[in-house]
Structure formats: C-alpha cells, structure tokens
Design brief:
Elements lengths: L1 E5 L8 H14 L4 E5 L5 H5 L11 H5 L5 H4 L1 E2 L5 E4 L8 H5 L8 H7 L7 E5 L6 H9 L2 E7 L8 H14 L5 E8 L6 H14 L12 H5 L7 H4 L4 H15 L1 H10 L4 H5 L3 H6 L1
Parallel strand pairs: 1-5, 1-6, 2-4, 2-5, 6-7
Antiparallel strand pairs: 3-4
Helix pairs in contact: 1-12, 6-7
Bound molecules: adenosine-5'-triphosphate and magnesium ion.
Adenosine-5'-triphosphate binds next to helix 1 and helix 10.
Length: about 280
C-alpha cells in the first residue's frame, strides 16, 4: 500500500483537486483507492457529494475513537474508489486532543484498523501545518506537494520542508517527499514558466513531468459531486491527471523496493497509540 499525503500549507494550490482526480484516475487503472478528507473545510467530501451534518460519523469521530473507520468509509461514484469523509467538527479536534499522549498517531491508528485493503491511500491535508497535517505525516510514507506556478509559489516552502524533516527524524523515518506537482499552470505566461523552472531547480527529478493546466472543467466538477473522469472524461484536466497517474504508477516498483529495504520506524517501535491499546 502507498500512503501519500498531498500537502502544502499554502491555500488554494490544488491539493483537494489532486486528491480527488488522481484518486479517480488510479481507480480507473484498476487500483483500490481510499481518499481521506483530513481538512475541516470538507472540500474533498463535497467533491464526492458527501455533505455531513455535525455529529454524523466522520473522520472526526474515527480519530476520537468513537467510530470504527470501516463503518465510516463510503463507496464513491467511481468503482474502486472509497472516501473517508469529514465534516466541520474536525476543526475542534486539535484542542480536544491537545493533552493526549497519542495525539499525533490518531489518524495512523485509524487507518491501521481498516479492514479493506487498498493499493493507495491519499490524504487531503488542510492549508496549515497543525495537528491534522502532522497526523497525516505520521500516517503516510510519501509526501506530494502541489504548487501553483505563480509568484509566491516557493514562499513558505522552507517551513514545510523543515516540518517534513522533523517528523522524519522524530517519529516517521519512512516519510519522503516523492513528488512535486505544478498545478493550475498557464503555459502562455512567462511567470508560470519561470516559476516552474524555479521549482525544478529546487526539487530536480522529484518534480513530475506532467503539469496540470488551468482548466475550468476541473473547477466545475466538484459542484456536481464528481471527479473529472466522470464529469468530463476527455477534457484537458482529465488528460493531465491521467498523465500524472501514469507517472505515479511507474513509481510503484521503486517505492515497493524502498519499503522492503526500510528499517522499522520509530512509530512501529513505540507501538500503537494508547487509545488502541485500551480498545484491546
Ligand atoms: N487545474 C485547475 N484549473 C482550474 N481550476 C482549478 C484547477 N485546480 C484547482 N482548481 C480550482 O482552484 C480552487 C482551489 O483548488 P483546491 O481546492 O484543489 O486547492 P486546495 O489547495 O485544496 O485549497 P485549500 O488550501 O483551501 O484546501 C478550487 O476552486 C478548484 O476547483
Ligand atoms: Mg483543499
């Protein structure tokens, strides 16, 4: 299983759009995919037509240990693609868990309890480096960073990279940045091209060759509760996400080798979070 957090604390760069559409394209290629909405804005849930009321079973109740994740996961409109949805109550989780010992591992513990096996788990992170993003970094092995090819794209990146390094050295030795994705790219402007060159200078081969162009169909699809493969399967947006998916699939064997070679991480040595142990 590849567990990937799609993250950038900068808002509106294409994180949710990438989780929804990469997830759908991976399912189209026969992979079993779970997308996890770890953002209290619940945009990913809405993208798949799931609009939860406060108090309904969700990632929030799962992370609090009140619901079994397998009972909360829903089938999406796409075969092979499931969603672990969230609602607005997730916003309060940081404060509620602040005193708990296993607070960084609530998401990881929840994903480990899932009965259904998945080839891919894609976690949609909120635009912050708070507790929810840290939980996702503790659960994942890979980080994909979507970036908008516009001025300020690289601003704040140092903080994100330092956070990944800290999580890696303290609790999750297997975490790596394996992909950087240019989103909402407008190749007609010099600024977009120059920003893409800058991103490549920083990240080298980790930048995906595929670039997600600006495409209004990608912005329309969430309003219909559908990923782009269902909403408009032939548009540029669908083509771009399919090209990205081919690259992601091509990485599979290298990632498998890395998993086999990697030593057990600190989380494994610490054992499951306390809440799990109490549950027996
Ligand atoms: N390639 C694209 N072309 C046109 N519009 C896009 C594209 N990608 C995303 N959008 C639109 O841009 C907006 C921001 O995208 P998205 O919600 O995916 O960003 P985000 O990083 O998840 O935002 P947040 O930080 O708020 O969670 C949305 O309205 C989305 O529909
Ligand atoms: Mg989002």
């Amino acid at each position: 299983m590849r567990c990937i957090i799609i993250c950038n604390q900068k808002g509106g760069v294409g994180k949710t759009t990438t989780v929804a559409n990469l997830g759908a394209c991976l399912a189209e290629r026969g992979r079993e995919v779970l997308v996890v909405d770890a953002d209290p804005q619940a945009n990913l849930s809405l993208h798949f037509g799931v609009d939860l009321a406060r108090g309904e079973p969700s990632l929030y109740t799962v992370m609090r240990g009140e619901d079994d994740p397998s009972d909360v996961v829903r089938q999406s409109a796409v075969e092979g693609l499931r969603i672990l949805p969230t609602g607005v109550d997730l916003a309060g989780l940081g404060v509620e868990l602040s005193g708990e010992r296993g607070r960084l591992f609530a998401l990881r513990g929840a994903l480990e309890k899932l009965q259904q096996r998945h080839d891919y788990v894609l976690i949609d992170a909120p635009p912050s480096l708070g507790l929810l993003t840290l939980n996702a970094m503790c659960a994942a092995r890979e980080v994909f960073i979507p970036m908008q090819t516009q001025f300020f794209a690289l601003q704040g990146l140092g903080k994100l990279l330092r956070t990944v390094r800290k999580v890696r050295s303290a609790v999750n030795k297997r975490l790596r940045i394996t992909g950087v994705l240019a989103c909402m790219h407008d190749s007609r402007t010099c600024l977009a091209q120059e920003t893409l060159d800058e991103i490549k200078k920083h990240f080298g081969r980790r930048v995906f060759k595929s670039v997600i162009r600006k495409n209004v169909r990608l912005a329309e699809a969430p309003g219909f509760g559908l990923p782009i493969t269902e909403y408009d399967p032939e548009c540029h947006g669908a083509q771009d996400y399919r090209a990205l998916t081919r690259e992601v699939i091509a990485m599979e064997s290298a990632e498998q080798r890395r998993v086999e070679q990697s030593a057990p991480d600190a989380v494994g040595m610490l054992g499951p979070p306390r809440r799990d142990r109490r549950a027996g």
